[in-house]
Design a protein that fits this description.
The structure is a single chain. The chain is of the alpha+beta class. Helix content is 22%, strand content 51%. The protein contains two helices and six strands; from the N terminus they run ββαβββαβ.
Length: 93
């Protein structure tokens, strides 16, 4: 899956940065979620932004999935809150 989205920050006890998966792709992921989740609705994925690739898990939130962006990824790809980035996403099955 490939999509673009805006980096946003959730300011809990520690700040976390995410990009939301678009509705139509979130619906496709939800359709197969029972086969790929390893608990609590999180979905294991491989992610690529620019030259940076990593493994992580999508988090379900308000009918969509969120891609967490680690600090090292944000630094490597020079991403900050409000930036738009293109993500390549592969479900790890």
């Amino acid at each position: 899956m490939s999509f673009s989205g805006e980096v946003f920050c959730w300011r809990g006890p520690a700040p976390y940065f995410f990009v939301a998966v678009p509705d139509h792709l979130s619906a496709q992921i939800e359709a197969v979620s029972a086969m790929v989740t390893y608990g609590w609705g999180v979905i294991p994925v491989s992610v690529a932004i620019g030259e940076t690739t990593w493994s992580t898990a999508l988090f379900p939130k308000d009918g969509r999935y969120l891609v967490p962006l680690r600090a090292n990824v944000r630094r490597a790809e020079q991403l900050d809150e409000g930036d738009t980035t293109t993500i390549e996403l592969t479900l790890d099955v």
